[in-house]
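Take a sample.
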Amino acid sequence: MIGTTLEDIRDHIGRLASGDGEYRLVCARYGDRPVPAAGLRFPDRSTARVAARATEQYRAALRRYDPELPRYDVIVCQLYDESARTTVEEPKRSDPASVFVSDDERESELDDESERGDGDERDGGDDREWALTEPVVNGSAKRNERRRRLVEFCHRIAAVVFESLSASGKRRVEEAVMDRYFALAERVGDPDDLCLRLLEGMAAELADRLSPDEQASILADAAGRLDAPTPAAAEPVTATLDELRGCGIVDDFDRREPPDFDGDGRRTTDIRLTGYALSPRCGSLPVLPIVVDLLGRASKRRPTGTRVEPTDDGWRVRIAFDDESGSDDESSEEHRSDDENRSDDENRRRVDPDGLVVAPIRSAGSSASSES
């Protein structure tokens, strides 16, 4: 299946990378980083060119899942020495080449078409320390950044889930997702809307065809395939919500602090979402992108389930976590004591994952009444 191809190519690109390399891949038009080479550095230009070709193969394979996948030009860029820079005259609009590197470098790039591929991921990182070797058009990128980030985010989540399904041998689920997607593609013309419908369809198939434990395993494996978050994004829930807002999955959010415990003794966090881009289905709300991104960031307390209820302007989402944080507060001690008094079957039922891909929708106010 295609997922195996994606996994093999990702591994190949990873083996080409070097932690202290001076070269990386970016989109010439927008400055985005191409999946799956985002965040990777390469030791020399020739190796980066090989990685660019592999990236193009990865994107071509992924495009078989999604024919509307955006096409971007990928180039190699090199780290330059910030301390060696001198003050230069601001370039004129009519002379775009003056803002880039030497003619020799630029000709080297243009002579090798293998350096051009498809890229789709932005990584803020240390962009000021890198010199592009081909022109970058900034005006339209500014205006369309949020839409591009939405498509990038959706395809990034979909790609790692496809890889995980294939690696775990869930080919029937993989094929079911594709069948659903192709049916949607015949009815949905807008690429941005189509990528959202892909996530909705993927969540529905995972929920319908996999047990809760299988869902948890697939999502954990998929999250492990995401690029590591930046060190600055230390608090997982807020970092995930910021990412969702930045790419347009949600318009806004707020959190309830401090964390609470649900009726099963699990530590929980409540968030309120407005303008959530995914639509409910059969009494459940797709939360697949939220959970996968959060799993990719959470090193200790990992999400074990979600519940949602409607609000006047969006959704109230309660996320439950396994409590591996080592908290010493009285509430934690009380709930650990409760765990010891439960039978093994009761504890097993209590920790079963629930609502990891789609969250059951409860009537407004039901959670409040059940907790009083």
The first helix runs from residue 2 to 16. The chain is about 45% helix and 15% strand.
